[in-house]
Amino acid sequence: MTTARERLLDALAEIMRTRGLAEATTKEIARLAGCSEALLYKHFRDKEELMLSVLRERMPPFTHRLLPGEDTVTGNLVATVHGGLRFYRRAFPMMAGMLVQPRVLAATRESLGKYDAGPQEPVNRVTAYLDAERDLGRVRADADTSAVAALLVGATFQQGFLLFFTAGPEGPDPAEEDAARLVRPLLPSLLPEGGSEGGRG
């Protein structure tokens, strides 16, 4: 039997997917989950925390593990992009309504700020990972890690949109090679010449 928390996550995910974030009132979320609004606030501080939980628990993981020193830099970036392609393809229909409604967008931007969350999060996480790998000597000392992270996440976003546009949110998963193709052009600016990518694990 599913818990009330799981039903609330599923309810918001369904509303975001089929009707958009603007229609996701706490009253409607609770109704669809078969519980009271009071119970919603017992599990989540506000709708924004519930939305973040949906993105983190009901969507494909974006940034892989990204543990500095583990596996290889190339492998970690490919795994991250692979997850990002699946994430963005599924997220587009959920977020589309918010993007075309200025009031909803402004309210969401302000609310997510309370949790230091938002579309900048993947870039920040990849940058932090690359900075840590640079400290370990597995990334070039002169690498512009923030630029590489922005280029990588930006390309992932665009390709994720194309996947959604051509096959919809439930289309076939992208191949790992699709992710590797986005990572390869950036490797010369990241990896030390003649350096080893060996890591723990």
Automatic annotation (TrEMBL):
Signal peptide range in chain numbering: none
HTH tetR-type domain sequence ranges: 2-62
Keyword annotations of the record: DNA-binding, Transcription, Transcription regulation
Record keyword Phosphoprotein present: no
Record InterPro entries: Homeodomain-like_sf, HTH-type_TetR-like_transc_reg, HTH_TetR, Tet_transcr_reg_TetR-rel_C_sf
Any matching Pfam family: TetR_N
DNA-binding region: 25-44
Any one GO molecular function term: transcription cis-regulatory region binding
PANTHER family given in the database record: HTH-TYPE TRANSCRIPTIONAL REGULATOR RUTR (PTHR30055), MYCOFACTOCIN BIOSYNTHESIS TRANSCRIPTIONAL REGULATOR MFTR-RELATED (PTHR30055:SF238)
Name of the protein described by the UniProt record: TetR/AcrR family transcriptional regulator
